[in-house]
Amino acid sequence: MGAQHFEVGKQSEQGVELNRLLERNLKQSRFLDIETLCIRAGEKVWQIRVDLNVINHDGNILDCANLAVICAVSHFRLPEVSVTGDQIKIFTPEERNPIPLIVIHMPITLSFAFFDQGKYLLVDPNELEEKCMDGKLVIGMNRHREICTMQLSGNMLLLKDQIKRCVDITAKKILKITEFIQEEINKNSNDIENKKSIRSSNLDEKMSLI
Q1: Tens of pLDDT along 2-23?
Q2: What was the pLDDT predicted at 193?
Q3: CA-to-CA distance for 25 and 170, rounded, in angstroms?
Q4: Residue of 19, 76, 26 lying closest to 192 (CA atoms)
Q5: Which among 69, 144, 154, 52 is positioned nearest to 111, based on CA atoms?
Q6: How open is the CA angle 113-115-106, to the nearest 5 degrees?
Q7: Cβ-proximal residues to 136 (8 Å cutoff; 6+ apart), any chain
Q8: Cβ–Cβ contacts within 10 Å for residue 114, how many?
Q9: pLDDT digits (tens, 9 = 90+) for 106-137
């Protein structure tokens, strides 16, 4: 569905590389506070699984997928749980408000395409540019300039100054992207709270009429 060259039911080399980079950038950087997933120590925990579906692949699928995972996890809410002795009760959203996951940091990736043996670089290449590039550099970084992952692919070598330039560009871009994501998440949280307040007031009005 994402592109004509994708084979249904078969994972390509690009898919394997994508999974590996996402796992390295997200899971191994410990961007989630996994201790909050514990229900009962040593016995029961919440399992978080993210399924990615590519609708329209036009290049730089890694950066898009990485952002999608971060936004999905940041938006997700877990049901509240109470543990009393051996009894575990999971509350519905009507009984208690679901709890957001604790995102410690946002490791965002930025991809650079290189042409003419590194003489020219391009940020966020599309599919056509990826087909004719000499190589690609992927940098995963959070807003604190902590590098979470870095991978160079293709038949080319980069100088130290070229890599440093890419790191500096990544730091500036990621700061803006992180701020934008956080603003949208805050807006969404406020909208949810407003809707809950409206539902609660409507319920109180109905109860008073009864």
Answers
A1: 555 566 666 777 788 899 999 9
A2: 74
A3: 14
A4: 76
A5: 154
A6: 15
A7: 111, 112, 113, 114, 125, 130, 152, 153, 154
A8: 22
A9: 999 999 999 998 889 999 999 999 999 999 99
